[in-house]
UniProtKB/TrEMBL annotation:
GO terms for molecular function: hydro-lyase activity; iron-sulfur cluster binding; metal ion binding. This is Dihydroxy-acid dehydratase. Belongs to the IlvD/Edd family. The keyword Metal-binding applies. Keywords: Iron, Iron-sulfur, Lyase, Metal-binding. SUPFAM superfamilies: IlvD/EDD N-terminal domain-like, LeuD/IlvD-like. Residues 42-352 form the Dihydroxy-acid/6-phosphogluconate dehydratase N-terminal domain. It comes from the Bacteria.
C-alpha cells in the first residue's frame, strides 16, 4: 500500500502515525458512501460550492453541481463537492467585503486539506469569485471557475428592469418624491425576478468576465444567463475540463500572470466594469506575486476604449451581452491590445482561442474599436494631496460636467453621521459642494461598505439635482453610477488626509489631470493631524481583531498582509 501513487484519495492522508492505516481508513469511509473500488481509483475533482439559504444569487447551485458531477463522471473522475463560506451581498453585515478574505482562507485551506487533484470553484455573487480565485491561487492546485450566470431582465410597464442599477434609479426617484411608497413597493418585486447574479455590469458580472479573460474559466461561459440551458452544458463541460486538469495539471500560477492580469485590466476598462473589480483583481494577482499599479491602470485606460453598452454605463443587460457575442467578442475586438500567449485552463493560449472564426456580433451592444461607446477606459486613478496613494473614479458612469471642478467640502465623519444629517433640511449644502465621507475605508469597523455612492441630499434631490461630486474611502456597488471618487488612500481611519478634511475646505478635482487635492495649507493640516484623537483600540478577539490588524489598503487589494505572496514593490 505504501507504494500507492499520491493522487486521488491517497493524497494528503490524515495523520495517524501509520500511512497505510490512514489510507485503509479513508477507503473504509469512502466505501461507506457507497463508492466502488473503481470509483475510488479515479482522479478526484473537488467542487467548492457556496450554496446558501442566505445567498439568492447561488440558488441554482444544486442543479449546477449535478451538471458538473455529470461532466466529471463522464470524463473518468470522481466528483466530491464540499461547502465553503457563502457571501450573499445583501445578507452579510456589516459588509460582504469584510469576509472576502475569510472565505478565501476557507477555500485555500479546504483545497489543500482534502484529497483532490483538481477543483471546480462554484461561486458568483460579488465577493465569492474573488475569494475563490484568491484561495485557489494560493493553494495552486489546478482549478477552474464556474459562475451561476446573470439573471434576466423582465418587462414592467413598458421598460425592462433588472437588479440593480434600476434598483438605485427607482430609489432615487422615491427619495425625490417622484414615485409613491405604493409604487416603490410594487417595483421591489419586479427588479430581480429570475435566478442568477445581478443582470448588469456590476461586480459579479465584471468578475465573471475578468475570470474568463484571465483564463480561469471556460471560454464563452461568463455571460450565459443563469436560466439558459447553455449554463448547464457549461457546467458539464467544466466538470470534464477539471478531469483533464487533474491528469495534465495547469496550475493557477501558470494562468494568473502579469500578462493575463494586464489583459483582465484591459477588459475591465472596456466593459466600463465595476470599481470593486479593481480591488479584487489586485488581491488575486497579489496571491501570485503580481503587482497591479494604479499608474499602469491610467496608461491602459488612455488606450482602451469602452466597447460595451451595458448598465450602469450604458443601456443593455448581461443577457444582451451574451446574445451579442459575449466576452469572446469583446476579447476579439481588443485583440491587438492583448497579450495572446497567456495560458488558459483549457490548455490553449488566449491567442489560440481567438484564432477561431469570429461569430456574429451585435454592434448595438458590443462596439468596434473604431466606433467605441466611449473613447477611453471606464476607470481612472487620481492622485494628489487628498489621495497620496490613489483614488478611483468610474468616469464612464459619471457626469463629465463635474470632472474639472473646485468645490466646498461638506463632511460626514462616519456612516452614522451621514445617516443622521444627509436629509436634514438645515444641512448647509448646495449642488456645487463636494460631499465627503470619512472613516468608511478598509480597516474601519464598517468594513469598507458600498457607501461611496452618497445619496444626493433630499432637499437637493427634490429640486432636481441628480449628481454631485462625492469623495470617500469607501467602495461603490458596480451597479451604481454618478461622479463618485472612491478608495481614497490612505483611508481616514489610519490617519490619511481624508480624515483631516473639515467643512468648508476647498477641494479640487481634475479627472483630466488625474488629480484630487485638498487646498489647505500644510501647516494647518499638521495642526489638525496633531489634534486627531488616538486610534480606537483594536478589537480584543476573534475575526474582528484579525481583520483590523491585517487588512491592507485599497491599492493592495484589501487583502490580509500575511496572505499575499511577496512581489516586486510597486
Ligand atoms: Fe449577488 Fe448582485 S447581489 S450578484
Amino acid at each position: 500500500m505504501s507504494n500507492t501513487p499520491k493522487h486521488g484519495l491517497a493524497k494528503g492522508l490524515t495523520n495517524y502515525g501509520d500511512t497505510d492505516f490512514s489510507l485503509y481508513l479513508r477507503r473504509t469511509f469512502t466505501a461507506a458512501m457507497g463508492y466502488s473500488n473503481e470509483m475510488m481509483a479515479r482522479p478526484v475533482v473537488g467542487i467548492a460550492q457556496s450554496a446558501s439559504g442566505f445567498n439568492p444569487c447561488h440558488r441554482t447551485f444544486p442543479e449546477l453541481v449535478e451538471a458538473v458531477k455529470r461532466g466529471v463522471l463522464a470524463a473518468g473522475g470522481l466528483p466530491l463537492d464540499f461547502p465553503t463560506i457563502s457571501l450573499g451581498e445583501a445578507f452579510v453585515s456589516p459588509t460582504s467585503m469584510k469576509f472576502r478574505n475569510l472565505m478565501s482562507m476557507d477555500v485555500e485551506e479546504m483545497i489543500r486539506a482534502q484529497p483532490m487533484d483538481a477543483v471546480v470553484l462554484l461561486g458568483g455573487c460579488d465577493k465569492t469569485v474573488p475569494a475563490q480565485l484568491m484561495g485557489a491561487a494560493s493553494a495552486d492546485l489546478p482549478a477552474v471557475q464556474l459562475v451561476p450566470g446573470p439573471m434576466l431582465p423582465m418587462p414592467f410597464q413598458g421598460e425592462r428592469l433588472g437588479a440593480c442599477t434600476d434598483c438605485r434609479r427607482f430609489w432615487g426617484k422615491y427619495r425625490a418624491n417622484e414615485i409613491s411608497t405604493d409604487q416603490i413597493e410594487e417595483i421591489q418585486t419586479k427588479l430581480a425576478t429570475t435566478a442568477g447574479t445581478c443582470g448588469v455590469m456590476g461586480t459579479a458580472s465584471t468578475m465573471a468576465a475578468i475570470t474568463e479573460t484571465l483564463g480561469m474559466s471556460l471560454p464563452g461561459t461568463a455571460a450565459i444567463p443563469a436560466v439558459h440551458a447553455d449554463r448547464l452544458r457549461a457546467a458539464e463541460a467544466t466538470g470534464r475540463q477539471a478531469v483533464a486538469l487533474a491528469r495534465q495539471p495547469i496550475r493557477p500560477s501558470q494562468v494568473i500572470t502579469a500578462a493575463s492580469v494586464e489583459n483582465a485590466l484591459r477588459v475591465l476598462l472596456a466593459l466600463g466594469g465595476s470599481t470593486n473589480a479593481l480591488i479584487h483583481l489586485t488581491a488575486i494577482a497579489g496571491r501570485v506575486g503580481v503587482p497591479v499599479s494604479l499608474e499602469r491602470l491610467n496608461t491602459l485606460s488612455d488606450t482602451t476604449p469602452v466597447l460595451v453598452d451595458l448598465k450602469p454605463t450604458g443601456q443593455h443587460y448581461m443577457s444582451d451581452l451574451y446574445a451579442a457575442g459575449g466576452v469572446g467578442a469583446v476579447l476579439r475586438e481588443l485583440k491587438p491590445l492583448l497579450h495572446l500567449d497567456c495560458m488558459t485552463v483549457t490548455g490553449q493560449t488566449l491567442g489560440e482561442r481567438l484564432a477561431a472564426n469570429a461569430p456574429w456580433v451585435d454592434r448595438a451592444v458590443i462596439r468596434s474599436r473604431e466606433q467605441p461607446y466611449q473613447p477611453q477606459g471606464g476607470l481612472a486613478a487620481l492622485f494628489g494631496s487628498l489621495a497620496p496613494k490613489g483614488a478611483i473614479i468610474k468616469r464612464s458612469a459619471a457626469d463629465p460636467r463635474l470632472f474639472e471642478r473646485e468645490g466646498r467640502a461638506v463632511v460626514f465623519r462616519s456612516l452614522d453621521d451621514l445617516a443622521a444629517r444627509i436629509d436634514d433640511p438645515a444641512l448647509d449644502v448646495t449642488a456645487d459642494d463636494f460631499l465627503v465621507l470619512q472613516n468608511a475605508g478598509p480597516t474601519s469597523q464598517s468594513g469598507m461598505p458600498e457607501a461611496g455612492y452618497l445619496p444626493v441630499p433630499a432637499k437637493l434631490a427634490r429640486a432636481g439635482v441628480k449628481d454631485m461630486v462625492r469623495i470617500s474611502d469607501a467602495r461603490m456597488s458596480g451597479t451604481a453610477f454618478g461622479t463618485v471618487v472612491l478608495h481614497v488612500s490612505p483611508e481616514a481611519a489610519i490617519g490619511g488626509p481624508l480624515g483631516q478634511v473639515r467643512d468648508g475646505d476647498r477641494i479640487r478635482l481634475s479627472v483630466r489631470d488625474r488629480r484630487l487635492d485638498l487646498l489647505v495649507d500644510e501647516s494647518e493640516l499638521a495642526a489638525r493631524r496633531a489634534a486627531l484623537p488616538a486610534r480606537t483600540a483594536l478589537p480584543t478577539r476573534g475575526y474582528d481583531r484579525l481583520y483590523a490588524q491585517a487588512t491592507l489598503q485599497a491599492e493592495a487589494g484589501c487583502d490580509f498582509d500575511f496572505l499575499r505572496q511577496q512581489g516586486p514593490d510597486t
